[in-house]
Amino acid sequence: MMNSKTAFLVISATVLLFFSGCSSVEKNLSDFQARREVENNVLSSSFPRLHLKVSNEFAYLGSVQAEMEKNTSSSSTGSSNEGTFDAVSYLFVQPGPGGGPAKGIIVRILTASGDPNQEAQRRFLKEIQPRSILESGKMKILEEEYRNDLVLYQELFTKEEKNLLQKPASSSCFLVKRLEKREGFGGKARALIYYFEDIAAAGTVLACGGSTGVKEPSLEQKRMFHDFTERSYRAVRFLNAGSVVDATSRYVDPGTGESASGARTEDGGVPEADPVEKRLETLKGLYEKSLITKEEYEKKKADILKDL
Question: In Å, how far are 133, 180, 252 from 137, measured between CA atoms?
Fold first, then answer.
């Protein structure tokens, strides 16, 4: 039988080989899986997993990689551990009257090897901190959990992203719907999706001043947030295995599979809901959220029912 000292050495060597093997396997898998492309406004990434359809009203400007140096940190034993950090951005933009971005979508994919909280990643994320967080929570899309924020930015684009813009952003205030998910061992990969609109140029009821957000939004601001969020749902759709499925009932369209009743359209898709029914549901939702008055609700409801 092994004595206690020999057993300790064997266990220590096994643990060291295990973690060394995990690091090597994870790096190889990341290198192998990190296949990304954009075709016909559809962005696909295998690591982190992402399959998005961006509305054709936005022009794809291209992708750009952040210039990040290799990061070296010291472990508790005094040895150095090298880590690498990659940040790739994909830009889809609709220009405004002056040529700058009026609205659009930014998809940022961040991956790290080594320490997932290494300095390079923190430095990159610090560049794009929001001015105010108006709403925050979590949501599930295609069975994956996303952080879901409504935020204001005074400086939205990184220096590399600015190089892709045909004309620089003139705005100092962007309203943004931001989704974020983490993936991989230790959450070393992040996917961040931003739908943004230039609200400074639009002269809206919201300003970027202050840093605490809107604690008690007015009725007008609630309507603005609601309309903005509805536009964000139409701008970005989440795809799954080549088809579009219903997840969160807002972000995901009916796809090419069968509907709950098994019905299919002539082109193989799922028949859409009755437009009148959808309009009534939307109207009811606005009323329940106190975005419209009871009188406005009843009047608009009567107008919709005339179309039957």
Answer: 11, 11, 19
Whether the CB-CB separation of 181 and 111 falls below 8 Å is answered with no
Half-sphere exposure of 296 (CA within 13 A, CB side): 10
* Domains of the chain, residue spans: 31-240, 274-308
Query: What is the Rg, in whole angstroms, of the alpha carbon atoms belonging to the chain?
Result: 24
- Tokens standing for 132? 């105010």
What distance in Å separates the CA atoms of residue 297 and residue 290, rounded to the nearest whole number? 10
* pTM for the structure as a whole: 0.65
Rounded to 10°, the helix 294-305/275-288 angle is 180
Residue type, 266: E
Phi, psi of 281 (to 5 degrees): -65, -45
Cα separation, 52 vs 39, in Å, equals: 11
pLDDT for 22-58, tens place per residue?
444 444 444 444 688 999 999 999 889 999 999 999 9
